[in-house]
Design brief:
35% of the residues lie in helices and 19% in strands. It is of the alpha/beta class. The strands form three sheets. The protein has an eight-stranded mixed β-sheet with strand order 1-2-5-6-7-8-9-10. A two-stranded parallel ribbon has the order 3-4. β9 (202-206), α7 and β10 form a beta-alpha-beta unit. It starts with 7 loop residues before the first strand and ends with a strand. Mean pLDDT is 89; it is low at 242-250. Bound molecules: iron/sulfur cluster. Iron/sulfur cluster (SF4) binds next to loops.
Amino acid sequence: MSKERGFVYGPVPSRRLGLSLGIDVVPFKVCSYDCLYCQLGRTKKKTIERQSFFNPKEVLSEVRSYCEKGGRADYFTVSGSGEPTLYSDIEEVVEGLKAMSDIPVAVITNGSLLWQKEVQDALLSCDLIVPSLDSASEASFRYINEPALGLELPRIISGLADFCSKFKGRVWLEIMLLDGVNTSPEELEGLKEAIEQINPERVQLNTPVRPTRSGLAKPVDIDTLRSIAAVFGDKAEVIAAFKPKACAQGSEADDKSILGLLKRRPCRVWDLAAALSVSPLLLEKSLERLERQGCVHHVRKDGELFFTAD
Ligand code: SF4
């Protein structure tokens, strides 16, 4: 099976990782969850069955070609348009990336399969794992994440804890907070206990600021995020929106790069400008033209303009 959109995308300006070269190792929206806050629409195939979706050599060859052309990145980030640990050859990809350069390797995962020994083993040589956990209560977990059959919350939490106890790299646990859903004192108490059990290096609090698949996923305000961080203690931090340090003023992005990013995630103009190192003004012109051609659409979310592509 080949990958229509290619395996490599970006580099994307990441709130946490700086310039992150995305490596997408699953077919579009194959995932063990169907989260309310997903930016990619509904899950097309909900499963916990791991598969060799693609040839790992093809994945690595695309990354190698990016590097050989002088492409830069602060992180190789295995993630993308579904749950990357469903890819049964992820270990070969991680090992290949580690052998290719000194760029650290991160995996962004929903954490739902980390109770499986083969998944734990596959990720042990990574530098950073960013798993998510949005609730420690069964009802909210099912409501927010809509997990596949066979996934049980206590097993997921103990799997995360077990992995953290063995892993030599860094683990940053991400919690997506949804207004009125997982922010009650009971929810926060449950999450606090789960954090103590899992013992990650950091706890990162997020809230949906981009368009999501469901209007039920409402963001919490920054003051609430800060007070929740205080409840969780010193490890907790609010992930601030990434601000580009500087954008080139004169260069223009090619349509392929713009569409490649927009097909994977909705972006604001400055997200794209930072990712592609191009002028926001020229980018706006390209986006207008691509929108007239029907290749790009815009959507408003909380007063901000996001662009997407099919
Ligand atoms: S947010 Fe991540 S884990 Fe949740 S449905 Fe989307 S791809 Fe899957």
